[in-house]
Amino acid sequence: MKQEEITALLDDMSLEEKIGQLVQLSGEFFSANDISIGPIQKLGIDKKMVELAGSALNVVGAKETHDVQVRQMQKQPHHIPMLFMSDVIYGYKTILPIPLGLGASWDLEKVGEAFTNAADEASAAGNHVAFAPMVDVARDARWGRVLESPGEDPYLNSKFAEAMVKGLQKNLKEKQGQIACVKHFAAYGAVEGGKEYNSVDLSISNLYQNYLPPYKAAIEAGSNMVMTSLTTLNGVPVTASKELINDLLREKWGFNGVVISDYASIYELIKHGFATDETQAGKAALNAGVDIDMKSPCYSNGLKDLVSNGQLDEVKIDKAVLRILNLKNKMGLFEDPFYGASEIREKSSILTDSKRKLACQLAEESIVLLKNKDNVLPLSKEQKIALIGPYSNKNTLIGMWAIHGDPQDTVTISEGIKKYVPDLHVCKGTDLQRNREFLKGLGYLNEEGINKVVSSEEVELKNNYEAVEAAKKADVVLLALGEDTYEDGEAGSKTNLHLPKNQRHLIEQIAKVGKKIILILINGRPLVLSDIEDKVDAIVEAWFPGTEGGNAIANVLFGNYNPSGRLTMDFPYASGEEPLYYNHLSTGRPATNSQHIGRFVSKYIDCSGGALYPFGYGLSYSDIKYESIELSSSQITPKSRLEITVNLINESHWTTTETVQLYIHDEVASIAQPVKRLVDFQKVELKPNQRKKITFCLKPNKLLFYDNEGKEKIEPGYFDIMVGPNSRDVITKKIEYIE
Ligand code: BGC
After folding, report:
1. What span, in angstroms and rounded, lies between the C-alpha atoms of 163 and 156?
2. Distance from Cα 465 to the centre of ligand 1, integer Å
3. Omega into 8 within 30° of 0, i.e. cis?
């Protein structure tokens, strides 16, 4: 449609119709399957308003979306097509590793391609908008949603935000893409104590420097939608924050797309103690700049009265509706309300060989080898191998937010390994969880369900016994352990980051047998491994690796893929260290290099502190030496560039991919600066015994920081330039910035 036609349509719409466009409801309202995540609540929405609703949440499938679209369009006076939006967060049917794993790949290009694949599958199934990318900076492993984020670093998350948005939206014109909806604006990742839905309180400089950049990068990459966070920021619920939505996002950043609330977050303004009732909540959100009300009755039940009693200017509603109509028009929905979706296309585009292949490559790249004592890995097919543990045969490798994925399509660990060792001995060893109270707390199992997943004492003893016997007969034991799917993701906050007691007990029993042990971890967050690390020979962090998980794990174990993943969140020594992140401030009494010795420094008295495995860390089967770094100058000015050359050598017979990381530290500034922060990286391939020089070009804008008014600053003075394979083991040189 031409813009004049859109405007004419808007002019012709009744107030109710316009309000309908601002309402998003889930499947059950349209007699469709409902697979939404979130609290179920009777909304008390008028039937008329349901008919006028402008978008649907998590209704998927070519047939389902087609039928709902036809029914709804018939009911609407202007036959306006609906937008179908859903949580395609890391794949639709071909499930990728969880985003924390994708982050560990540091592979922007492949992740972008994989998001293009996800959008292809989802659009073929009638889906228009992906509620992705989720790029909240995640510094606290207690927060279950770290699973959904690329990690703790603002720069890396920004790069992933860009790649993911571009990937999703790449083929929009061909009707094979999806609109990106970046979330959760803003700073959801900083929930106090890592507790889900908790408050966020941040200084302005911290907000601008560490939390806002990924959302901004997504907007700059063209994200057409933004989702607000469920939380407050400095006392104001983000969903009602004019300062954040209208003033910053729209006016300062120039975003002219659609803003959607998170699930019921407008209604929740009442619970926050910010609005007296649904009507006032709706008014606050609309005034702040939220266009679509996801799954709450506030807009549908309240906006009309607000307009008629003069509390709300209809022009504000018009503006929101226009943005939504423009988005529908951008997708060509007025001409083709089904956006090219069909059951035939759906069948032929999901889980294709090429999509599985890319998912497998990314799963391989996401795996982080945390320990490999005496090069126990890779394995050889000649060794006698026992695969033990609750994850050996499980197909639940796709993680909590893969709500459209099917575990049945997933390659299990034993299936992957059997391709190398057909007569593999496999046994369960123990349950995934045996703590019934804990399982109850996960909220998806009733008593009967718990009885199915927790074995009797007798069976548990038998499982343990079998595992020990299997270990005795093997040369190498693979222990596949980890977290339950529902321990991570939304509403999966935990205070204890250890593996469950029964799994640790199994490790101890197997360790007593004295065979080599390779621990394979399936989990969605950094775990505390300090108490088990010395009982095993190797640790393979595989995250929830997705549909191709079993194949990828096996390829890494048998050396068909030389591991290259690097952590994007710190792994702590103890849960009590959280939030733990590498780019922290120095404090006046740092634990090392302090003027004080002994007690009076910033540390915990009962824990060695810092990270067991830090940000950027990961081993490979190769041995890469960072010989030296050279700088083109020891000074940088506003107009100059600095070349940083790194000399690497691969002292092994393995071809390898090395992720070379560049960090800086501003020594003295008017706002204290992090001890180091990532400003660039390169993934480079090195052939056996190859020497390579790689060069970074540092522009002065990398030295910027934000003050407490949110303004960018660079101050003259000295900076450390650090290069290394991770955030801990770096070579440092000093430069001076001169104005
Ligand atoms: C989550 C969002 C999600 C939405 C729709 C909410 O509970 O916070 O991330 O996109 O539900 O399913």
Report:
1. 11
2. 43
3. no
Q: What is the reported pLDDT for 34?
A: 62
Instruction: Name the burial class of residue 437, with classes exposed (0-12), middle (13-18) and buried (19+) by CB atoms within 10 angstroms of its CB.
Output: exposed
Does a cis peptide bond (omega within 30 degrees of 0) precede residue 133? yes
pLDDT tens, 654-689?
A: 999 999 999 999 999 999 999 999 999 999 999 999
Of all protein residues, the one whose alpha carbon is nearest to atom 6 of ligand 1 is: 263
Which of 24, 28, 37 to probe ligand 1 with, by most ligand atoms within 8 A of CB?
Answer: 37
- Weakly modelled stretches of the chain, pLDDT under 70: 34-41
From the list 518, 506, 515, 502, the residue with the least C-alpha distance to 413 is: 518
Q: How far is CA 713 from CA 254, 670, 681, 709, in A?
A: 21, 9, 23, 11
Whether the ω angle into residue 579 lies within 30 degrees of 0, i.e. cis, is yes
At 43 the pLDDT is 85
Residue 148 CA: nearest ligand 1 atom is: 9
Is 406 considered catalytic here?
Answer: no
The residue type at 150: P
Q: Give the list of residues 6+ apart from residue 719 with CB closer than 8 angstroms, or none.
A: 664, 665, 666, 667, 703, 734, 735, 736, 737
C-alpha–C-alpha distance, residues 395 and 397, integer Å:
5
Q: What distance in Å separates the CA atoms of residue 718 and residue 620, rounded to the nearest whole number?
A: 34
The confidence score (pLDDT) of residue 41 equals 53
Ligand 1, atom 11: closest residue by C-alpha: 263
Ligand 1 binding pocket mutation candidate from 25, 57, 131, 229 (most atoms within 8 A of CB)? 131
Choosing from 107, 262, 488, 666, the catalytic residue is 262
Phi/psi of residue 229, nearest 5 degrees = -85, 160
Whole-number Å distance, alpha carbon 394 to ligand 1 midpoint, is 26
Task: Look up the pTM and report it.
Answer: 0.98
Closest Cα to atom 5 of ligand 1: 263
pLDDT at residue 408, rounded to an integer: 98
**CA gap 283, 302 in Å, rounded:** 8
Tell me how far the alpha carbon of residue 597 lies from the centroid of ligand 1, in angstroms: 48
